[in-house]
Amino acid sequence: MIHEIFPVGPLQCNCSIIGDETTREAMVIDPGDDIDDILALVRKHKLQVKQIVITHAHIDHVGGAMKLRAATGAPILLNQNDFALLKMLDEQAAWVGMATPGKVEIDHSLTTGETVAAGSHTAQILHTPGHTEGSICLYFAPEKRLIAGDTLFAGSIGRTDLPGGSMQKIMRSLHDTVLALPDETVVIPGHGELTTIGDERETNPFLVKR
Ligand SMILES: [Zn+2]
Predict the structure, then answer these.
(1) Ligand 1 mean position, distance from CA 80 (Å)
(2) 186: part of which helix (H) or strand (E)?
């Protein structure tokens, strides 16, 4: 599996490019900004982007989606519970001092039970509300990788004080869904360093056992 992880934009959102070495099909997860850099990596690996997956509708994760769709023709996928947040991109831009990306259109809503794929590499979608109502994680079971969006960070969890946030819901998502994954699962958070489920289960101060 080709997996490029690199921070984009002023808030340094971790964007992932996942590609299949044989079919050269790819997905891009959270193209928040710096679309020219994303496209340069796509070309470097000779990939064809088939899906654009958004873990949640915060501007630092979704801001570049329309530009990437225009460049690749790939559909934009996001859980429908974040459609309200998507309509607030102008307000979000003002909060963080970014230029507004304009209107973002969603081609398909994703939720638990569905999968996304880059060639032979398939991820299960896990709806994990709490940071936002429509937050999702992508779990690549054979590769033991979790793209966690802003639900789980190394040593921390997503903030819940923004519109659509809920501490009760994020704790339920973390304990019932995220921590149900195997300890050896590598976690790629929405920001910052990579970690594993086992490390977070043991040391994350927000995840001490109930
Ligand atoms: Zn966020």
Answers:
(1) 16
(2) strand 186-189
Question: How far is Cα 155 from Cα 205, in angstroms, rounded to an integer?
Answer: 7
Q: What 3-state DSSP class applies to 199?
A: helix
131 C-alpha to ligand 1 centroid (Å): 7
Neighbours of 195 (CB within 10 A): 21
From the CA of 198, how far away is ligand 1's center (Å)?
23
Give residue 46 CA to ligand 1 midpoint distance, Å.
30
What's the pTM?
0.96
List, for residues 137-168, the tens digit of each pLDDT value: 999 999 999 999 999 999 999 999 998 999 99
- Report how far ligand 1's centroid is from the alpha carbon of 39 (Å): 23
Q: Which residue has the higher pLDDT, 28 or 99?
A: 28
Q: Contact at 8 Å (CB) between 140 and 62?
A: no
